[in-house]
Amino acid sequence: MVYKAFIVKYSEISLKGKNRFIFEDKLCDQISLHLKECGEFLVKKEEGRVFVEALSDYDYDEVIDALQHVFGITAICPAVRLKSREWEDIAKGAVEYMKENYSSFDFTFKVFCKRGDKHYPITSPEICVNLGEVLLDNFPTLKVDVKNPQEKITIEIRNDAYVYSTEIKGAGGMPLGTSGKAMLLLSGGIDSPVAGYMIAKRGVTIEATYFHAPPYTSERAKEKVIDLAKIISKYTGHIKLHVVNFTDVQLHIYETCPHDELTIIMRRYMMMIAEHFANKDQCIGLVTGESIGQVASQTMQSLLTTNAVCTLPVYRPLIAFDKQDIIDISEKIGTFETSILPFEDCCTIFVAKHPVTKPTLQAIEKSEKKLGEKMEELVKTAIDTVEIIEI
Ligand code: ATP
Ligand code: MG
To answer: Global pTM?
Structure first.
């Protein structure tokens, strides 16, 4: 059966009071953007729903997949627009829908009705009862089960009338572009792509910064990060990726500072440099994949020390997540297989055998003093030589 319409449901947007139209318009824009490659569609909003009508041929799976990548959607219902809102057309249309959609009729069902137009002359309960009877007359093997039906046949009456019985889960969250922009520190690991996905799910647009250390880290490690950015960009949209050559900064830290403090000091410089690019591009927050206690550099003391260099707020969507929960999300969004490819990260190369787990800001700042003016130059060079990759 060819569905001509998709009814898009959303939830949190409806809580937004007077600003609601801004969120709905963004959602419509995002839907249009995601469907651009799938065919021609009319996207319109109508009282708590977005209706997507196909104006050309399209591939069903492709459209569902595209809509499932749009944040802000809670459910997608492939629907058929009925000939008119007259009761006869609703009844006839629903029977046709059943014939085309099901091959056998030995299941239980319940009819649901939602009326956007409260002036419609027949009430929702009347439609449910009447249509239930019509369906039982036409398909005598069907059974009604109002408590736990196998199939939910739904009629929606708005400017037009629709019938549907399938509800596909959407990505949830808030439409992209409704919450400002943030800079993601993106490594090749499992966590940071998930963190980027999660912050974008709250409507935040993202840019990303990746620190690499050639020749200690290979071109393939960089390709891996680009691939990860491409995968999450299916959800987050366009990403401006900053690739920073971090080798000389890292070597200078390695040669100058106590080795058990390397990771913390490195992380502080990463934050500083990422914040520089963030400020330049009007990002109003940093995002990392850190989670309390996951490694030595992510104890609360380490996070306190790292945080101290930042003036922008640092968002850590995974802060209370167990590794397995993060892995589950990375599998769901399709980054896991790429994240586990065995290419080295710049943090793992210069890592100490016994890193500090309870650093103090005082001790770290004292060690950093030894880095001197040379460090300022190296940071400036790292910033000046940044490579920008548009994903
Ligand atoms: P991930 O799986 O995200 O790499 P991880 O468990 O390996 O996380 P760390 O290496 O301690 O954790 O990194 C913590 C966070 O610091 C990462 O989630 C990421 O946001 C940032 N980060 C680490 N390495 C890099 C890098 N090379 N480039 C950019 N950001 C990085
Ligand atoms: Mg990492």
So the answer is: 0.90
